[in-house]
Amino acid sequence: MSPPLTTTTTTSIFSPSKPPPPLYTFLFFTALCFLAFFYTLNPSQNPKTTLFHTTTLFLSSSSNSTISSYLHSLTLHSHLAGTNPSLDTVNYVFSFFKKLKLETHIREYQVLLSYPVKSSLSAHFTNGSFVNFNMNEFVDFSESEKIVAPYHAYSPSGTVHAKVVFVNYGREVDYNALGVSGVNVSGCVVLARKGGGVNRGGVVKIAESKGAIAVLLYTEEGRVSGGVERGTVMRGAGDPLTPGWAGVEGGERLGLEDREALERFPKIPSLPLSFGNADVILGSLGGHALPPEWRNSVDTRSRVLRVGPGPTTVNFTYQGEKKVTTIHNVFAVIKGVEEPDRYVILGNHRDAWTYGAVDPNSGTAALLDIARRYALLMQKGWKPRRTIILGSWDAEEFGMVGNTPSLFSHLCAMGSTEWVEQNLVNLGAKAVAYLNVDCAVQGPGFFAGATPQLDNLVIDVTKKVKDPEAEGATVYEKWAAKNQVNTIQRLSGVDSDFAPFLQHAGIPSIDIYYGRDFPVYHTAFDSYEWLTKHADPLFHRHVAVAGIWGLLALHLADESILPFDYLTYVQQLQRHTGSLSRLLDRNISLHPLVNSIQELASAAKEVEYEIKQLREQESRGGHVDLKLRVLNDRLMLAERGFLDVEGLQGRQWFKHLIYGPPSDYESKLDFFPGIADALSQSTSKSQQNRQAAIQHEIWRVARAIERAASALKGNLT
Ligand SMILES: *[C@@H]1O[C@H](CO)[C@@H](O)[C@H](O)[C@H]1NC(C)=O
Ligand SMILES: *[C@@H]1O[C@H](CO)[C@@H](O)[C@H](O)[C@H]1NC(C)=O
Ligand SMILES: *[C@@H]1O[C@H](CO)[C@@H](O)[C@H](O)[C@H]1NC(C)=O
Ligand SMILES: *[C@@H]1O[C@H](CO)[C@@H](O)[C@H](O)[C@H]1NC(C)=O
Ligand SMILES: *[C@@H]1O[C@H](CO)[C@@H](O)[C@H](O)[C@H]1NC(C)=O
To answer: Ligand 3, from 117, 159, 312: best to mutate by most atoms within 8 Å of Cβ?
Structure first.
């Protein structure tokens, strides 16, 4: 699932115009539905009219009951990637597409996954008594056997017996606070709570560097639900044994003991813990008092007063196994009639830690409903101009970071990453856009992330879809009215399947969802029942997501000129540069950046003018097919300009120099990741080296923007 990023890269998209009166909107929708009954689609019509009819018919075919039934079927069993029950969902999605008579296929990869064998934890108190903790969640007994025990994927196995220290969120600042009180965690088991901007893998990595010998991690949200949060602690992109290439059967694969593979795994074991169990330990700690700066934020119902070390000790055992396992991506393809070699890709992952009702099958159910509705359009004669691909990814969870705003780790979803790696050249030459939905519905409120040239498309489409809560309003009206969320986020995180498409392959991307957080994240309680009780009782939010998602793809597939606006990208880059300038010393020059953005601006203006002219020619019935194709290629390829062959320093898989994760979770930038890294690494360097490194990264970004400008202009120098 996809957490919202911090606000530094977001951009306000709304002008304060008054929403239309509800009656007007109501009539508009009634008219749309009415029209839908009377039009069948005729491809020989003027392209604009056809898209209008397709849109009308698509919107009128929405249904909350189909989505709810798909979700119910997908979530009957827990379906962790690589396990037998997960094959049921592979078959379900495959036969679903087949029944709709869509061209369907499965791509398998072999990747290294990680499963728990045994875990135990006991706390030993100074008065001689001890507790053996139940490490499972309390759920219906017959079911509980089928749910994977709470664990951290890729944790090494290990048994340790040591004193416990509470380390708050486990950030550098937290260890500094402990240091001030003279607490040294070396040789101890650290107990941390989740949050504070650092993710699971980051907590373990920092603990390791401080000399801790094991990590216990709990979430305060689990206090009510009793849930325990599973998740991965791996470092690296995609399959750890096939870094940068696809894990195909019989292909090259690193050994588990190869240095490059070992670097991706933590060195100390870790386990997730329930709030209740964590609190028993916390309440028994002696030693130093809680640092004053932690006091206000600790859950007031928690019994923690002191941080240790000890005197309570824990006997911690985790035994896991890593094994190379087959995963399955399922595809449906709707061939484009005019430009079959241009791809609009909709993607969602299918695998889940447990039942996965919210994460991710709320998105899968929406994807399947879009397939149903596209098949309906096809029956009425619709064929898209460009090819539409629906992708259902596997094993996202094994490569994904938790739902904190942190960008610390370098992790990526596996099924989608392997596929992008295998198809890199074809995607680079032919993919128009990637549209991601992970957790479609977590709760109320619409959220969107996008590369900036797609902002206006997102806005236009949300103006056509009914709001799930406000009668008579559109999603846009409700979204725009909520000032605090009137932003489109940027996709610098690695928390869902858009990361390989954008950050490795440079494909313009969108990510949409309802609701920011949900308390049963990665627990046994992420079930159909929970979702219908808390997140979307009538499935109206699902309908809204499916509507927006499906319409985005229809526009991208059917508009004769791609709906990309690079002037928006220019404005966003200017704002990024402004934010960057506030963090820099005066003798670092931003001129290269400013100049390159100027170039992109002039290319974008040129294109705007050309589009106007082409539209006129088109409406006069002129033969513009080849001209359209040439212009669209420039629009499509401009984003690829932001890629750099060398990638980010030390993390070469990340090729995009505008959007990607900075390696420091405390970085103030969530754009220009190379510059962000130079800024945060620089403290350890001499002043002069530091400035040279920052300046060099600025030049690299400037050259990337120039490449984009030149691709958009479409001329050789
Ligand atoms: C903590 O203790 C270890 C082992 O005794 C020692 O090597 C390390 O330097 C200590 N760390 C700090 C910050 O004092
Ligand atoms: C021993 O100490 C633990 C932790 O403080 C406490 O929960 C437990 O009740 C104590 N047991 C006895 C027998 O006093
Ligand atoms: C710790 O737990 C393991 C596994 O349950 C057990 O074999 C071992 O004896 C325990 N060690 C101590 C010191 O309690
Ligand atoms: C679909 O929406 C209708 C109208 O709001 C509602 O009555 C119905 O219960 C919903 N169906 C499901 C499956 O939630
Ligand atoms: C930047 O300015 C500082 C202080 O004004 C100076 O010490 C440093 O050498 C300058 N660096 C460069 C690269 O000009």
So the answer is: 159
Give the 3-state secondary structure of residue 316.
strand
Give ligand 2 pocket residues (Cβ under 6 A). Answer: 125, 127, 129, 284
**What is the pTM for the complete model shown?**
0.91
Instruction: Say if residues 216 and 191 touch (Cβ distance below 8 Å).
Output: yes
| Tens-place pLDDT, residues 481-530 | 875 445 899 999 888 999 999 999 999 999 999 998 888 888 888 999 99
Cβ(470)–Cβ(19) under 8 Å?
no
The enclosing H or E element of 356 equals none
* 3-class SS of residue 358: helix
Q: Which element (helix H / strand E) includes 391? A: strand 386-393
596: helix, strand or coil = helix
Which positions of the chain have pLDDT values less than 70? Answer: 1-49, 139-145, 299-301, 400-412, 483-486, 682-685
Query: How is residue 684 annotated by DSSP?
Result: G
CA dist 153 → 100, 142, 399, 462, 475 (Å):
36, 24, 9, 38, 38
- Residues 361, 88: contact at Cβ < 8 Å? no
Residue 224 Cβ inside 6 Å of ligand 4? The answer reads no
Query: How much is the pLDDT for 485?
Result: 44
Two structure tokens written together for 248: 């195909």
What is the C-alpha separation between 264 and 272, in angstroms, rounded? 20
The structural domains of the chain, ordered by start, are 61-111+323-558 (3.40.630.10), 113-321 (3.50.30.30), 566-713 (1.20.930.40)
Tokens 């019509």 correspond to 45
Interatomic CA distance for residues 409 and 237, integer angstroms: 9
Q: CA separation (Å) from 217 to 162, 234, 326?
A: 16, 15, 29
Q: Whose CA is nearest to atom 7 of ligand 1?
A: 186
- pLDDT, tens digit (0-9, with 9 covering 90-100), for 319-373: 999 999 999 999 999 999 999 999 999 999 999 999 999 999 999 999 999 999 9
Which of helix, strand or coil describes residue 283?
coil
CB count within 10 Å of CB 613 equals 11
Q: Which amino acid is at 420?
A: V
678 C-alpha vs ligand 5 centroid, how far in Å?
Answer: 16
